[in-house]
């Protein structure tokens, strides 16, 4: 993972006159009469004789979201080009700035050093967007190609003190780096990222952040009765693990448990998936990646909370040792589940981890997973579904909206519960119909959540992985969703209880 070096500069004019940046990034907006420059561009425009907006309009630029236009500075600035990036509608939101900064971060590939003025509009969003947009995953390329931008000078906003700006820069960089850490895990192919190697990587990250870590292997899982994780992971030659990380912050008043689905590859098992796009299932551990990145971030930023994170890790493979449709599993805690479809495996590993997480007696439980294809049918590729206990679910969804990850609250309709009744066990792992597939999975999980524990599950089946073209600050492959939502919920609990 490469993260550009970021340096704050409090005085734009002074920096502009002697900058070593090759490109200066300015924002544009769609004004009532066409393109206008966004705040922060004034000094750049002055150096160009007040012509910048006219030049951009002449080139056909409109200021629409993520539009990128390069203009040569013809010796009027030390930097050779102005990179104008569209924010869209005027009075841009934080997410508009983040996306424009992301587009600029992508467009700066091949540029060694840049100076951005988007930070004059919103420092936090500009930093997050620039770092996220500049990410690329080249670990498996013989020829990595043009490098992402390696240094970005960041212009300070007019309001606030230098000290506040430094703190904002530090937090925004840490948040963005955590998103990238999650992306790296998701983008690592399943032949290299399997339960054992994932646990090893969790250990390295945990040690670096001063977290406690405990890893249960298949023998310990068996001894303690983790029937869900063992059932799902039994078909693979690479045996399952349960990772537990814990962090105790200064003056912690609240305890939060995190759980993330870690299926390192999901073939569907004996209920085998179709071949088309099965490679997408390399992302089926995105929940675990996000949870791991989030607890590391909480430690880095010293959130005043106590946090435990659980990563149930398994590979869902068909083989002679696989679990079968018709099997009954005894889950951690003793509930029995009739497996009617081995491809509904996420809920099984999550159920074990959810029951274990409650033993720590948390005040809140936040879970996330690439749970169901039905999430994408309901909400598309960019909108996570948030389920859970009503009040906490709504709080998480509202915060998700503010981060730009845009989670949306979903119901758990009571009439679906009966469809999970099993002919011989306490519960079946799927219903007999396709309708409300995400909600049925949510209702299954609810059976394992301790009574009265405020709980939210974020289904990121689509949003975790971008199989389309890059957009905003999101490249191809792992997106790192919902790290920023989890981080913001943790910060909110730290502030408001
Ligand atoms: N990992 C999948 C969900 C998924 C699908 C994530 C597409 C990302 C993209 C999950 O384990 C799964 O297979 N769910 C089944 C459930 C069904 C058998 C009830 C699904 O959605 O088809
Ligand atoms: Mn599956
Ligand atoms: Zn899965």
UniProtKB/TrEMBL annotation:
Record's subcellular location: Cytoplasm
Binding-site list for Mn(2+) 1: 266, 343, 345
Entry EC number(s): 3.4.11.1, 3.4.11.10
Pfam family, one: Peptidase_M17
Entry keyword set: Aminopeptidase, Cytoplasm, Hydrolase, Manganese, Metal-binding, Protease
Assigned GO CC terms: cytoplasm
Keyword rRNA-binding appears in the UniProt entry: no
GO MF entries: manganese ion binding; metalloaminopeptidase activity
Domain of life (superkingdom): Bacteria
Binding-site residues, Mn(2+) 2: 261, 266, 284, 345
PROSITE patterns membership: CYTOSOL_AP (PS00631)
Textual note on the cofactor: Binds 2 manganese ions per subunit.
Swiss-Prot/TrEMBL catalytic activity: Release of an N-terminal amino acid, Xaa-|-Yaa-, in which Xaa is preferably Leu, but may be other amino acids including Pro although not Arg or Lys, and Yaa may be Pro. Amino acid amides and methyl esters are also readily hydrolyzed, but rates on arylamides are exceedingly low; Release of an N-terminal amino acid, preferentially leucine, but not glutamic or aspartic acids
Cofactors required: Mn(2+)
Class of enzymatic activity (EC top level): hydrolase
Family annotation (CDD domains): Peptidase_M17 (cd00433)
Active site (record annotation): 273, 347
Residue ranges of domain Cytosol aminopeptidase in the record: 341-348
Annotated GO biological process: proteolysis
Family, similarity comment: Belongs to the peptidase M17 family.
HAMAP family registered for this protein in UniProt: Cytosol_peptidase_M17
Biological function: Presumably involved in the processing and regular turnover of intracellular proteins. Catalyzes the removal of unsubstituted N-terminal amino acids from various peptides.
Name under which the protein is recorded: Probable cytosol aminopeptidase
Organism for this UniProt entry: Prauserella cavernicola
Organism lineage string: Bacteria, Bacillati, Actinomycetota, Actinomycetes, Pseudonocardiales
């Amino acid at each position: 993972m490469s993260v550009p070096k970021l340096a704050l500069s409090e005085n734009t004019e002074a920096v502009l006159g002697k900058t070593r940046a090759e490109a200066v990034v300015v924002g544009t907006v769609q004004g009532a009469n066409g393109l206008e420059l966004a705040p922060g561009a004034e000094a750049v425009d002055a150096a160009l004789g007040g012509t910048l907006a006219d030049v951009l309009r002449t080139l056909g630029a409109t200021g629409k979201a993520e539009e990128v236009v390069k203009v040569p500075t013809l010796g009027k600035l030390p930097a050779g080009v102005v990179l104008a990036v569209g924010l869209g509608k005027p009075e841009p939101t934080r997410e508009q700035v983040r996306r424009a900064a992301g587009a600029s971060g992508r467009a700066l590939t091949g540029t060694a050093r840049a100076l951005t003025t988007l930070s004059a509009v919103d420092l936090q969003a500009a930093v997050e967007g620039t770092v996220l947009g500049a990410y690329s995953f080249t670990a498996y390329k013989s020829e990595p190609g043009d490098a992402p931008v390696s240094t970005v000078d960041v212009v300070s906003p007019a309001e606030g003190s230098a000290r506040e700006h430094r703190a904002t820069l530090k937090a925004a960089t840490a948040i963005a780096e955590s998103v990238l850490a999650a992306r790296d895990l998701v983008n690592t192919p399943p032949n290299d990222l399997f339960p054992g190697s994932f646990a090893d990587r969790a250990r390295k990250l945990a040690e670096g952040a001063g977290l406690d870590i405990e890893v249960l292997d298949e023998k310990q899982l068996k001894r303690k009765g983790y029937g869900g994780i063992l059932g799902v992971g039994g078909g693979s030659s690479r045996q399952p693990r349960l990772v537990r990380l814990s962090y105790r912050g200064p003056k912690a008043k609240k305890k939060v448990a995190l759980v993330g689905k870690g299926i390192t590859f999901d073939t569907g098992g004996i209920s085998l998936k179709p071949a088309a796009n099965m490679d997408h299932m390399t992302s089926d551990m995105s929940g675990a990646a996000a949870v791991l990145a989030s607890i590391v971030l909480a430690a880095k930023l010293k959130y005043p909370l106590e946090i435990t994170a659980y990563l149930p890790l398994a590979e869902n493979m068909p083989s002679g040792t696989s679990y079968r449709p018709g099997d009954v599993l005894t889950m951690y805690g003793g509930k029995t589940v009739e497996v009617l479809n081995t491809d509904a495996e996420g809920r099984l590993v999550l159920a074990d981890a959810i029951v274990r997480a409650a033993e720590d007696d948390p005040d809140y439980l936040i879970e996330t997973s690439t749970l169901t294809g039905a999430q994408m049918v309901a909400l598309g590729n960019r909108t996570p579904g948030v389920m859970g206990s009503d009040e906490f679910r709504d709080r998480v969804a509202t915060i998700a909206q503010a981060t730009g990850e845009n989670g949306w609250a979903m119901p758990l309709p009571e009439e679906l519960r009966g469809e999970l009744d099993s002919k011989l066990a306490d519960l079946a792992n799927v219903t007999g119909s396709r309708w409300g597939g995400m909600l049925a999975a949510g209702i299954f999980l609810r059976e394992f959540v301790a009574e009265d524990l405020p709980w939210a599950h974020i289904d990121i089946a689509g949003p975790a992985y971008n199989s389309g073209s890059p957009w905003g600050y999101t490249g191809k492959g792992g997106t790192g969703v919902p790290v920023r939502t989890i981080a913001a919920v943790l910060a909110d609990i730290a502030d408001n209880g």
